[in-house]
Amino acid sequence: MFETIFGNTINSTDVALSIRTILVAVAVALVLGLILSSTYYYTTAKKNRSASFMMSIIILPAVVAIVIVLVGGNIARAFSMAGIFTIVRFRSVPGDAKDISYIFITMAIGLSIGLGYLTLAAALTIILGLAIVLIGFTRFGAVKEKEKRLKIAIPEDMNYEGAFDDLFTKYTDSCELQKVKTTNMGTLYELNYDLIMKVNASEKDLLDAIRCRNGNLSIQLGMKESSGQQL
């Protein structure tokens, strides 16, 4: 049955050529995807790495290349493929916004390979990979000091507006009051600040100065919970 179908529609030489083309495209795509995945591995903090995302980076160029090779110049087949892909819904957990860059790069690599531009695909992988490594190494655009969360408990009769402004000016580069709430049955206020410490400022000196003003009540300073740059 299959021999009859192939015999009536596709020349055996064309089939062999197409299979060889697809195999070469897949092999090159997997190698370049592996290189890009390695770049992701070495430029992403261990706690932020995702094994499933690394696998996607390896596989996606090959998938895109296969689709482009199969579609070729056949318009009807292109619309059929588009219809199939519109059924699929891609979902992912919230992550770092730079992940979308890797997705776009893998798509560009897959398209280049599928269209037969293997040298261009290799050049894209090397150049963009080096650019990512360079940006990560130089920490271009990164904040030198991470934002922290400061919680201060004060008596209910204390006016918190501007009560610590001079201390924040002395010890921080920026400080912003995010939230005020009552606690301990309404006998205390809890102030929540987001701040960035000055490079040479002492956190202990800041906390000691605050303790002298809030009556030695509770003070908590820690890293701000990262919400991530979601896509």
Task: Describe, in plain words, how this protein is organized in 3D.
- With 231 residues, the protein is an alpha+beta fold.
- The chain has two domains: 2-138, no CATH class; 148-223, 2-Layer Sandwich (Alpha-Beta Plaits), CATH 3.30.70.240.
- The protein is built from eight helices and four strands.
- The chain has a four-stranded antiparallel sheet.
- The longest helix has 32 residues, at 12-43.
- It is elongated, with a radius of gyration of 28 Å.
Strand order, main sheet: write it out: 2-3-1-4
Number of domains: 2
Radius of gyration: 28 Å
Work out the number of β strands. 4
Number of helices: 8
Mean pLDDT: 80
Largest sheet: number of strands, sense, barrel closure:
4 strands, antiparallel
Look at the helices and sheets and give the structural class: alpha+beta
Low-confidence stretches: 1-10, 88-94
Categorize the overall geometry.
elongated
Quick overview of this protein structure:
Helices cover 55% and strands 15% of the residues.
List the topology elements.
Blueprint: H1 2-9, H2 12-43, H3 51-71, H4 75-87, H5 99-114, H6 118-138, E1 148-155, H7 165-171, E2 172-183, E3 188-197, H8 203-211, E4 219-223
Antiparallel strand pairs: 1-3, 1-4, 2-3
